[in-house]
Amino acid sequence: MLITFILVLHGLISLALVGVILLQKSEGGGLGIGGGNAGGMMTARGAADLLTRSTMILASLFVLTSIVLAILATTNKRAHVIDTSLAKPATTSAPAAPGGVPLFQKTEPAAPAPTAPAKPAAPAPAPADSVPLAH
Q1: Cβ of 18: how many Cβ atoms within 10 Å?
Q2: Listed residue (84, 82, 65) closest to 17, CA to CA
Q3: Distances (CA, A) of 30 to 25, 52, 59
């Protein structure tokens, strides 16, 4: 339960961090708001300081929640009981082909057929046309 709460908090912090980073003025233009005065409410310098401070705080919270989640994940190694009440019993029947004939059929090995005693191999006769060559 605690892990779920911290994980949701971690996700919200990461989304806020992305939003604050995208609001900052970058060298290339970006999506920044620091270019002008927003209705006289805050100066460009004040907006930059607020966004920088917000980024620092959110980044620190992001790292802190990452460490806490890692610690909780490693210390939460208790044995879990596996519920087998919904498990189907294993069947030993073979899958059937479209014609209804089993694709694989478990059969007992056949008894080995009696074999005749082996006769010694006779040398092969030499071809009649071959003549030994003298060196």
Answers
A1: 11
A2: 65
A3: 6, 16, 20
